[in-house]
Structure formats: structure tokens, C-alpha cells
Amino acid sequence: MKPTLVILAAGMASRYGSMKQIQGFGPGGETIMDYSIFDAIRAGFGKVVFIIRRDFADDFRNIFEPKLKGRIATEYVFQDMEGFTEGYTFPADRKKPWGTAHAVLSAVDVVKEPFAVINADDFYGSNAFQNAAKFLTTDCSAKVHAIVGYDLLRTLSEHGTVNRGVCGLDAKGNLATITERINIAKKDGKILCDDGLEPKELSLDTRVSMNFWCFDPSYFSYTQKLFREFLQKHGQELKSEFFIPIVADQFIKEGGKVEIIPTTSSWFGVTYKEDAPFVEKSLNDLIAKGEYPQRLWS
């Protein structure tokens, strides 16, 4: 059974103003998402599921269907505020979506096989998809999930600080904790984190999460149970969010295992608008090395 790729794209519209304005970085106007899908197809994924906002569905389909038709199966699902709340009455003035773990629940009806979850606007690299596909087809189970772990050094921006999920490892090298650290930057050869937490200096070989997860389909029922509990505790807060690391953390506490999949790929994304030229240069360098064709879909 081929694994599925789930792409978290429900936040795209608010960042870009309109789906038609998704920024193209490749020579043919390809988005970062195009490269992720291209890598997933090469790695053996059989389906891509886009989690999007309902009001941008037509625009989204018009962008992606012409490219992907005949190359990979596609599904489009929607993250709605009312979804999976099971009649729970949350504040009427809440505008913020419930977060990434809630977004993934939107795919429950179309994903029945092991699956990976990624962000729409992060470049993860070919090796990351190859390694994730191998895990999903050979090792993934209801008791064993995984996360692709990136070297923190490969994920910093020269244009300001970044926030990262810092991975704590257990004695066997599996994930023990993820701690969201903010205001991380490299200074005088050291990686410093100005967020009031300890340690202030992070080691140069720190592994971080860039939200590339690998799950068994049992994730859905498990997450739905945790979301019920989350609503009871935090559902009246206007800005509370139910993130994937919350689910992973509880899964580990209850005896599950989350392996850390290593990758030689470099991550890049657009944290700051000044990062855009770097993204374009990085893609052009990969094309020059022969890792991608000049035009992905022609």
C-alpha cells in the first residue's frame, strides 16, 4: 500500500491574501509545495491530500489539478472551526482555527493508509521524502510513529530569529520531548535562544522538528479523543491551539514510540520576505546539480 502525503495548507490564504498569489520560486513559477509533491511522487507516495480553507477550494483545484492529473491521486478537505467539536459550544467571537492537530483530523475520511504530514510552505528535500516513504512502508504502526529530524544549523535564517520545535531524545535516540523554542539565532559561532528558557545556548548538533510527521491511520481516533479533552480544558480560550506535538507528547507518555528519521536534506522556507531570494537561489542550485528538472511538470 502506497503512503499518502497530507499537506497543511489551510493557513495559506491568510498569509498570501488569495490562493492565486501563492508565490512562485521555481523557474517555471513553481511553488515550494510543487517541489514537495514532486519529491513525494518520486519517493513512491500514491496520493496527496490538501487541507485547505473551504472558500479557496475552486482556486486551489484550478492551480493543482492541471499539473497533477495522471501523476498522483488528489483529495481536498477543509478545516472548519466546527469540525470534530461534537456540539461543544465555543466562544462566538473565536476566529483562530484550532491548530495543526485539528487540521489533520479533517483528512480522516480520505486517509486509510500510513501517511506523512507537512507544511505547505516549507521545502523539505528529496532525501527526507525517500526516508519518510521507507519508514511508512516498512516500520509504521499503531505503536510507532516518526518525525523527520533536521539539523538546527540547516534551518536558521540570516535575516532574523526563528522559532523551532527542539527535539529531546531518549536513551535509544527516539523522540522524548518537543519543546517550542523561540528567538533562535546564530551569533559568534554559537546558537543562542532568547526566550527565557534554559538552556540559553543550544548545541550545534541539535535536532529540530520542521513539522514533517509520519503516522499510522490510528492517529485519527487517538487525536479525536485528545481533542475532546483539549476542548474541555482550553475550548473557552480565544487563542488556544491544538498542535501535533501535543498529540505526539501524549502518545509517548502512554508508551508509544516516535522515531526520529534522519535526513541529509537541507530545509528552507520563507520566514521573512528577505528569505525569498535565498529560496530561489537554493532551488536554482539544486536544478543546476540535476536534482530537479528545469520545469517540474512539463
The CATH superfamily appears as Spore Coat Polysaccharide Biosynthesis Protein SpsA, Chain A
By CATH, the architecture is named Alpha-Beta Complex
Q: What Rg is obtained from the alpha carbons, in whole angstroms? A: 19 Å
Order of helices and strands: EHHEHEHEEHEEEEEEHHEEH
* Distance between the ends: 28 Å
Shape: globular
User: In CATH, what is the class?
Assistant: Alpha Beta
Number of domains: 1
| CATH topology assignment | Spore Coat Polysaccharide Biosynthesis Protein SpsA, Chain A
**How many helix segments?**
8
- What number is the mean pLDDT? 90
Structural class: alpha/beta
Q: How many DSSP-defined strands?
A: 13
Helix content: 25-40%
Strand content: 25-35%
Largest sheet: 11 strands, mixed
Spans of at least 5 consecutive residues whose pLDDT stays below 50 are none
Could you describe the 3D structure shown?
The protein is α/β, with parallel strands linked by helices and 298 residues long. It has helices at residues 12-16, 32-43, 57-68, 100-105, 126-138, 219-234, 244-253, 276-288; strands at 4-8, 47-52, 73-78, 115-119, 122-123, 144-151, 162-169, 175-187, 190-193, 201-202, 207-215, 257-262, 268-269. Strands 1, 2, 3, 4, 6, 7, 8, 9, 10, 11 and 12 form an eleven-stranded mixed β-sheet that branches. Strand 2, helix 3 (57-68) and strand 3 (73-78) form a beta-alpha-beta unit. The protein starts with a strand and ends in a 10-residue tail after the last helix. The model has no long low-confidence stretch (mean pLDDT 90).
